[in-house]
Amino acid sequence: MIWKKPLTLQQLNQFCENSAVSHLGITFSAQGDDWLEAKLTVDERCCQPMGYLHGGISAALAETVGSLAGFGCVEEGYFVVGTEINASHLRPVKKGHTVTARATPARLGKTTQVWLINLYDEQLQRCCTARLTLAVVNKQG
């Protein structure tokens, strides 16, 4: 198991209240020994003008789930910040559908973490693949 902070899904969702995460409707939905998932229902808050999930929102969902997963993998007194994200948009998702993002670690180092995040539609078809790099930061520093 990779978790150093035993955060529940309820705690993660409470932590994100009154932020861009809750404004977009992102909710943490499942967690395993080495992965974390969040969901997003595609609505007017996250669509581009043609009625599909906006690519920037896909990246925001990926960064959200990857960053909170990374935060759960560092000791007390440390947090993580994103330093780089890239996302490949593989298929469109229409308004009214739900997207699930699953983050799994590629590397959990002392100063750097790399997370792989795949977004799936309701038919479990991959619609986006992202890679997120996080810096591990000491709260005192």
UniProtKB/TrEMBL annotation:
Q: Matching InterPro entries, A to Z?
A: HotDog_dom_sf, PAAI_dom, Thioestr_dom
The answer on whether this UniProt entry bears the keyword rRNA processing reads: no
Task: Please provide, alphabetically and separated by semicolons, the GO molecular function terms listed in this UniProt record.
Answer: 1,4-dihydroxy-2-naphthoyl-CoA thioesterase activity
Q: Which UniProt keywords apply?
A: Hydrolase
List the Gene3D superfamilies hit by this protein, alphabetically. Hotdog Thioesterase
One GO CC term, this protein: cytosol
The domain of life for this entry's organism is: Bacteria
Protein name from the UniProt record: Thioesterase domain-containing protein
